[in-house]
Amino acid sequence: MIAIEFKDPNSKLTASHQFGPFALPPYLNKLVQDQCLDLGLLTLTTSIYPVLRMIPALILTEKDVDDMLRIVAKAVKTVADKILAENGVRMP
Fold first, then answer.
1. Cα separation of 38 and 72, whole Å?
2. Regarding the domain with residue range 2-86, which homologous superfamily does it belong to in the CATH classification?
């Protein structure tokens, strides 16, 4: 299993995500999961922690892993861009 936890390093509580002048949604993992699914990658989340889980088959090729990581990276970027835009933050 491979897991990614979405947590603000400055936050002591998992549900309290602060990024600049606005709070990150506590369901960030679900947003990334939905975006991954739209891009063709099936992932899992956890019930109470902001974690995205991937449970790949043991017969993956190096290309499969590269494709999976590319999709996850694109999904995270898409979700981040959407959250920033909703909060009026413009990135260069």
1. 11
2. Aspartate Aminotransferase, domain 1 (3.90.1150.10)
pTM above 0.90, yes or no: no
pLDDT in tens, 68-81: 999 999 999 999 89
Q: 30 near 4, Cβ under 8 Å?
A: no
Q: Are 91 and 40 in contact (CB under 8 A)?
A: no
Q: Which residues pair with 51 in a beta bridge?
A: 5
Length of the chain, in residues: 92
Taking the C-alpha atoms of residue 19 and residue 38, their distance in angstroms, rounded to an integer, is 26
**pLDDT, tens digit, for every residue of 17-54?**
455 666 678 788 999 999 999 999 999 998 788 899 99
Residue with tokens 């979700």: 79
CA dihedral 26, 34, 54, 49 (to 10 degrees): 10
